[in-house]
Amino acid sequence: MAKFEDHKVFIYNSLKGEKEEFIPVASPNVGLYVCGPTVYSNVHLGNCRTFLSFDMVFRYLTHLDYKVRYVRNITDAGHLENDADEGEDKIAKKARLESLEPMEIVQSYTLDFHNVMRSFNAHPPSIEPTATGHIVEQIEMIQTILDKGLAYEVNGSVYFDVKKYSETEDYGELSGRKIDELMEGSRDLDGQSEKRDSVDFALWKKASPMHIMRWNSPWSVGFPGWHLECSVMSSKYLGNQFDIHGGGMDLKFPHHECEIAQGQAANGVKPVNYWMHGNMLTLNGQRMSKSTGNTLLPDELFSGSSDLLDKAYSPMVVRFFMMQAHYRSTLDFSSDALTAAEKGYKKLMAALETLNSLEHKAGTINEAVDAEITALCNKCYEFMGDDFNTPRTIAVLFDLVGKINTYAAHGVIEDISQETSNLLTQSFQGMVVEVLGLSPEEKSDSGALDGVMQMLIKMRRNAKLNKDFALSDQIRDELIAAGVKLKDNRDGTTEYTVDN
């Protein structure tokens, strides 16, 4: 029996503003789409939190035996500097400033993004499409929307007609905004815009002579609007109506609102059943954002090079730190919080290693203990099923750590049934490794270190025998400076210690 048949999942649906039981369109198949990065700079930790949150969602649904197709796009064209369809393309601007081809910028920062996600032990998506790889499909969707009378062409650019769409549909339903207020609040007073209403958004923009990235279309040589790519790629790979769409809460309006309108206009159905939005990662109490410069890069965190931190922290510690907060809550970075997370992470991984080394011993069953451990294991699934509540799940895992450490003191798992022992191992391992995505940190190779030390000891001994006392003292002094002390006795140097 598949696990999802035993464990229900409830998702907070941003579209409804409440938790709803998750019922896939075509169970056991699940379609999950997440808005990926615009690759014009290094990915910062605020971005990482969003992608790690949905990596966890992907992991848990997969853990429950759903067959998940996870699509996460790469925006490599069409993302202008602001949401008013004005300014330069972010990637083209970076290419111009660095005197590079746009695709060099895309390649460089896509590789950086993949490397960072790999360091965090994030699963790659099932499909990772790009905007530039789907220009033909974007042109086709624009033409469909035009044919239905929900878009218009002006001077080679095509705009979505929000007012016309709103005659039958609720533009603003996701973000809770009212069309009349939107139109009044964003009214174009200077009369220079080619849009019919300032709330309308671009499906295709005619390229200026200076615009680097451009493609042929029936309307002009230009480029697609930023909102369009996600509608095209999600429907192509997941269908016109799919299960879950995720992203940061900053994308709710206008990006996701426009996606809903485009999907409904082109395909006649609302594209997504469950909208999920992750909350912000803050730094010094302010949202991390490339546009404000209030960012912290993963490499700065891993190396400890940032003045904002007291020390370096490993990717697994940072991942655990992020999992300690619910994906819909804000999370503020500080050295104290990361140090506390580091201790918790090590405690959890030590218990996992201990659990995997223990064997079950048949004997008298303590019914109360047996029932308690079973209940704790079931609580993990209950909390994960409650809108992916990782902090409450982690709290239960630490309750299980106490049980595991008690068994470690006896050297065996006893006083519970074999079935409960199996449940303990499967649940603890499943939640820590498969769902939270935690793995042991790489340990230093003590064997290799010892080999190097023995070689240096031998070099120092030979230097003494050759009366090269300057070299002998240099080896000793440089090892001391590196935190290694040699222990000399009448038989020569036989031992060393390393300061932690």
As a percent range, the share of helical residues equals: 40-55%
CATH superfamily caption of the largest domain = HUPs
Percent of residues in beta strands?
A: 5-15%
In the CATH classification, which architecture of the largest domain applies?
Answer: 3-Layer(aba) Sandwich
Q: How widely separated are the two ends?
A: 49 Å
Q: Which structural category fits the helices and strands?
A: alpha/beta
Low-confidence stretches: 187-191
- Please, how many domains? 3
- Count the E strands: 15
What does this protein look like?
The chain is an alpha/beta fold and 500 residues long. Helices cover 45% and strands 14% of the residues. The protein has 3 domains: 3-278, Rossmann fold (3-Layer(aba) Sandwich), CATH 3.40.50.620; 304-435, no CATH class; 446-498, no CATH class. A hairpin with a 2-residue loop joins strand 5 and strand 6 (157-160). It is flat and about 85 Å long.
